[in-house]
Amino acid sequence: MSQTLTVVKHPLVQHKLTLMRDVKTPSSKFRQLLGEITQLLAYEATRDLPLEMREIDTPLQSMESPVLAGKKLALVSILRAGNGMLDSLLHLIPSARVGFVGLYRDEETLRPVQYYFKVPEALADRDALVVDPMLATGNSSVAAIDLLKEAGATRIRFLCLLAAPEGVARMEEAHPDVPVITAALDERLSDVGYILPGLGDAGDRMFGTK
Ligand code: URA
Known about the structure:
Blueprint: E1 5-7, H1 11-21, H2 27-45, E2 51-57, E3 62-68, E4 74-78, H3 83-92, E5 97-105, E6 112-118, E7 127-131, E8 134-135, H4 139-150, E9 155-159, E10 162-163, H5 165-174, E11 180-182, E12 184-185, E13 188-189, E14 195-196, H6 202-207
Parallel strand pairs: 1-11, 4-5, 4-7, 7-9, 8-10, 9-11, 10-12
Antiparallel strand pairs: 2-3, 5-6, 13-14
Uracil (URA) binds at residues 81, 134, 136, 193-195, 198, 201-203.
């Protein structure tokens, strides 16, 4: 459907996602599975990061060997559910810099309003991975990426666990340069903006709130 959408259909991802969808899965297991899937999504999302050669000494001889090129990556979590993906990403890319974007929905205008924004410096020189488990209407993701671009980011990838067709279309319209990497493209949005069949409210499920 989309030029920028990658659905990671790896069997491990699909198996773990089924466990996450199941209403009987407790918060502790939900968080663990989200971390595991995030690492597998990140493996896919980062496969074309540029490398440069570095001279090193093995115990036996010198060699030229590849390392990630350029400035350290920026990982940006969209609060609060994005934080459920952040730790496992940091395990995979421990040198990354971290940013946070906080948005709430104005109940009158239904538009996202920024309440927190703290991102690494020199965003223009970094690859940025933006995380939020649920790409539903796309309103908050688009708004977060608007803010990151205003702050200078030019190379952005968006990682989510589930995407609705409506959210993917909205992202593609607003930010066609941003690849979206997800574990599943679900059927549609409910009348109140939940992804169907989905997994419920990702933040509530990971933090045990309701
Ligand atoms: N956010 C969620 O947590 N779940 C949805 O289904 C949609 C948005």
